[in-house]
Amino acid sequence: MAHEHSGGPGGELRADPAVPLAERLHARGLRLTSQRRSVLDAVAALEHATPEAIGSRLRELAGPGGTAPDTSTVYRNLEVLERLGLVWHTHLGKGAPVYHAAEHPHLHVVCQTCGSIASADPALLDGAAERLAADLGFTVDVGHVALSGTCRACRERASETP
Amino acid sequence: MAHEHSGGPGGELRADPAVPLAERLHARGLRLTSQRRSVLDAVAALEHATPEAIGSRLRELAGPGGTAPDTSTVYRNLEVLERLGLVWHTHLGKGAPVYHAAEHPHLHVVCQTCGSIASADPALLDGAAERLAADLGFTVDVGHVALSGTCRACRERASETP
DNA sequence: CTCGTTGCAAAGGATTTGCACAAGT
DNA sequence: ACTTGTGCAAATCCTTTGCAACGAG
Asked: What is this structure's pTM?
């Protein structure tokens, strides 16, 4: 799963956005359900969405009295969608992983102090990726990378009051 | 300066191995206990140690009938030791974080397929770190970075039997 | 109709927390 | 003695699973 595709264990290449969801599912003998579609929509709408955040959004959209997919369904569908190459997930640290639509590959930058998340250009790691490929034969999967550190605001705050 | 570490929230800079553990603790009003020492020793002995692995090792060292620190004590001490700058932890993916002695900064490279872990030169990220500092004012903490991808063995295995 | 899917409830694994007691300094 | 540290058990958090009912194709 490098950023040039390698498909993981039973995985899929990056999704071609042009191919309708239903078709991709059917090709695998899977079905298109409203829950499945809504989970995918939620991931696309929310940036850096945790399974829990996806759940709340769906509950919110459903409104009171409305019905949203069960938590277990959210998890099961995230797994399916990821196998289809439609979403990616990244572990930003402890706690829940964050999912995002696969269309725009980007790497995550997380502030350890305030928890803020920023996105960055995957090309940033091209140099490192090349050296790892050359030295270890290791293919970096840029879509899953998270870099920890300290954001500007927290860094400044830290130096003010030592 | 790209790969200099920034202590975490209220954290400490990299530990000077020369300063005895007791002294470092005392400077903070903390105490040296046998459990604390054994947890640190275990982290140093095991590479890429999960809290659970640390626990088993201590139980093993204690032998049958012997007494090892409780799991919660292991967790609490890892936290303390990390605040003191004596150990670092990295999240390699889902599941448990891995701890390692802080003396030798290195970044982790994890194969998503087989789970194997390799270490790499932190300098690999210097380029990316510089650009992030310039573009976002973000300071990367190389000690916490994990890069996911596919190792040579898994990559070859994948292309053999498609 | 025939399976893949879902909801619900219950199981699980990994941390974390509340407390009374034990132990550094 | 004065506090920090520890063990134990219970509580949490995040996910996963077993199953009977449901619904897409």
From this structure: 0.86
